[in-house]
Amino acid sequence: MTLAAIFFAIGFRLAVMGTGNDLGATQPFFPAVIVVTLYAGWRWALAPILACMAFAWWLRMGAGGHPPDGARIGAFVLFLFSAAVTTAVTQVLRSSLISLADARRRQVEAEARLQVTQASAGVGPWEWDIQDDVLSLSATARRNLGLAMDAPTDMDTLTELVHPDDRPLVRSRIREAIKHGPHYEVEYRLANHPDGERWIHGQGQVVRDEAGRALRVMGVNFDVTQRRRAEDSLRESEARFRSLADSAPALMWISGEDGVRVFVNTAYVEFAGVSYDEALVLDWRSRLHADDLNRILKAQIAGEASRRPFSLEGRYRRADGEMRWLKSFSQPRLGCGGEFIGFIGIAFDFTDTKEAEAKLTGLNELLADRVQEALSERDEVQAALTQSQKLEAIGQLTGGVAHDFNNLLTVIIGALDVLERNPADDQRRSRMLQAAQAAARRGEKLTHHLLAFARRQPLNPEICRIDAMIGESEGLLRRAVGEGVELTLDLKAGGRTTLTDSGQFEAALLNLVVNARDATPQGGRIAVSSQGLDLAEPRGELPAGRYLSIAVADTGAGMDAETLQRAFEPFYTTKPVGKGTGLGLSQVYGFVRQSGGEVTIESAVGKGTTVSMLLPVREAFSPVEVLAVRPPATRASSHVLLVEDDVEVGDLISAMIDELGHMVSRAANADEALTIARADPTLALVITDVIMPGGKSGVDLAMTLAQERPELPVLLSSGYTGQELVRAHDTPWPLLSKPYALDALAQAMADAWDRHAPVQATAKKGGKAKV
To answer: What does the mean pLDDT of the chain come to?
Structure first.
């Protein structure tokens, strides 16, 4: 462009004036300078200025041949000055034009952004010329009002768009703004909008002249339907919350971040007995029970500081003055951004629950006492039941036992008769004595077995080997079965042991065998078996583990479904009247369950019955030690007092004591023994029967002697089992069971002297013995 301007200036000069005159050589270049400066800036204006100087010089020196003079040099200087001024002014004009264009461009862009923003935000600008009653609405304002783009607009048309119920409000706000205020603001509903009910918020500012007359109103409108719906929904939600909170039978409140309550419900106000505003600022410390105050305050401060859920429990004074138990739960409230904004809480009056707990505690204590009494009564009944079963079993054994004793007595009487008839036959005397002693020992064993089975003393569980106990009871079981039914034993439990009471186990086993005998016809079979059983998984109420199974199977009539279902019920029996009590299986069931086991019955009509006892295996803590029997101790001749009410037994024992080399005195009861002991200081030992006539037992005698003569040893002796024998076992004196042989008597006397030696030493030193 610069070159074009230069060539145009040179060509125009040459075309008009030619080369013959240098007059006006610089004038054509001024437009070129102005044009180049406007479009390219002052730097590019130097090019036409220099081109002008070169062209003028050429005209004067080259083409015209005129040397430069003062006037021509002055013309050059004047051109340069004028060109500089022209360039500067043109440059200023150019900068102004550029700034004006930039401002216009920014204005257009700003207006476009504003339109986009207004359209996006739903803000519609409008202007109302009050003087000419001309209303100008933007596209967004028309869209907000539901007005077509080409529809005519005036204030009356706009008013028709407003819901009839809101038109008076809109008119009054417009009049008030024009008359008094510079601002105009109103919210109204639109009538017959295609999208249903719509809310519009309009606001503007009144423009006035210098005289204060309103000229026009400029403002905007925007759709606030969503906000109004949200507000309505919020009000409805708040109304529902307040209704729910006020209907709740619990105290409810909401507090701010500073801990001040901003809402409480009706129950809260009624409990406090103050107005709503007073309840918001009520200091509950004045209502707390003195015993709970410090604890509650400490827990509340810690809970609020943690800004985590916490609960409190204490006694508060209600409006009527009554102390009530309240349990409160506080939950933190979070804002939209997750920030903490306070707590919401609820408290329940659980005074009735507290009182019920106190009553229940007392009731539980009373119930525990009653339960203990019931358990004691149950134990007594169970003991009586067990004893009844034993006695019933012994009654059923009477025939077999009498038969055995008759056989034993036959041997003893016959042997003695032979000895009496042949006193000089040493060989026959020895053989008859051995036979009589063997029969007597068999009788002793049988008696001990029956007494042990029928004992009434409390039962003590101990580690027992099942196979050994069944083997020892074999004779008793065979006598219970009789000769018409075959009894077999199949014992495979091996070394497994269990924790049980041997008497209870023998009673349970005997009951099962007797029941099997009664159900088995002549020629039938009864099998008693034992074996180990390992449960890998629980079976019913039994946990997994090692067990012992003891089963009694018969080939009898069996049971039907109804009988099988009721078999363990106490007093239920299918036997004829007088033949059974119905307590046998009940006793077995109770024994097995108390031992931690389980009892099952398998039976079918015509195929027999099998009753199985499953007992848990219990190992002994240490191997059983076999103690060797010590030989009878020897002692110098001593004075022994024998207290025995049976004359024949007393004569025999006296002879045995005399055989051991001791002197014997006799007493028939405890009173006679006390008289002798008090009068004879030479006595060295008292041997007394436990059960004696006269109201005093051998235990009573021993206790009296321990007080009066603590240095005198006592040896108890009895062939009876009962409650008095329990007392004998609980005393410090040794007990010798009848019948006994000479060696057993000698050993028992030696044990009595050895055991009493420390007491004698204490008595000699003046000490007092304790029983």
So the answer is: 79
Residue 442 banded pLDDT, cuts 50, 70, 90 = low
Structure tokens at 180: 């008094």
Number of Cβ within 10 Å of residue 588's Cβ equals 24
Percent of the chain with pLDDT strictly greater than 70: 79
Q: Burial of 103 by CB count in 10 Å (0-12 exposed, 13-18 middle, 19+ buried)?
A: exposed
Tokens at residue 730, please?
């609980």
Pairing of strands 639-643, 663-667: parallel
Q: Is the dihedral of CA 585, 587, 589, 591 positive or negative?
A: negative
Give the whole-angstrom CA distance, residue 457 versus residue 455. Answer: 6
Whether 453 shows a pLDDT value over 60: the answer reads no
Map tokens 């200091």 to a residue.
283
List Cβ<8 Å contacts ≥24 apart for 40-49: 40/1, 40/2, 41/91, 41/94, 42/87, 42/88, 42/90, 42/91, 44/2, 45/83, 45/87, 45/90, 45/91, 47/2, 47/3, 47/6, 48/2, 48/5, 48/6, 48/9, 49/80, 49/83, 49/87
Residue 285 in contact with residue 293, Cβ under 8 Å? yes
pLDDT score for 581: 45
Other CB atoms within 10 Å distance of the CB of residue 527: 17
Report d(CA 227, CA 92) in Å as an integer: 54
DSSP 59: I
Residue 194 backbone dihedrals phi, psi, to 5 degrees: -60, -25
Strands 735-737 and 714-718: parallel
CB-CB contact of 159 with 147 (8 Å): no
Tokens of 539: 């079976």
E strand or H helix that includes residue 158? helix 155-161
Of the pLDDT bands very low, low, confident and very high (cuts 50, 70, 90), residue 20 is low
Rg (CA), the chain: 64
Under the banding of pLDDT at 50, 70 and 90, the label for residue 98 is confident
Beta bridge partners of 685: 640
pTM value? 0.35
Determine the residue type at 682.
Answer: T
How far is 181 from 205, CA to CA, in rounded Å?
A: 9
